[in-house]
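Work Package 3 (structural annotation) set out to generate three-dimensional models for the target panel prioritized at the project kickoff. During this period the team completed the workflow that converts sequence records into discrete structure tokens, so that structures can be stored uniformly alongside our sequence database. As a representative example, we reproduce one entry of 114 residues exactly as it appears in the project archive.
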Amino acid sequence: MARITVPKLEASSFKGWTFVLIAGVVLALLAIIDRGGLNAITVADGSTGCQLEVTTDQLNVRNGPSQGAALVETLPRGAHVDGTRVVTDGFRQLEEGRWAADQFLVPLPGTNCA
């Protein structure tokens, strides 16, 4: 019968794993910050008179009113954004000339988005 031996782990063996763990956490935090994850639920300031809430898990925001327009950011469900009354080809114009699919945006009570 074959005998299995387990090598004894030295304390110095864990120094490398500590570095890997810390580096992994730092990289994960940088990725979250880069994707806007820490500011995930934004608060609309009402500057346009039309405030909208995102109703889908992730809403792509583009630089024009079409699927082919460049992606500028992604908003999570529940995010509040300032929009305009302009809807073109199913895309609503948001603040700063950005566009998002209108079907995934619901006007907040008391705002004028019609």
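DSSP finds one helix and seven strands in the chain.
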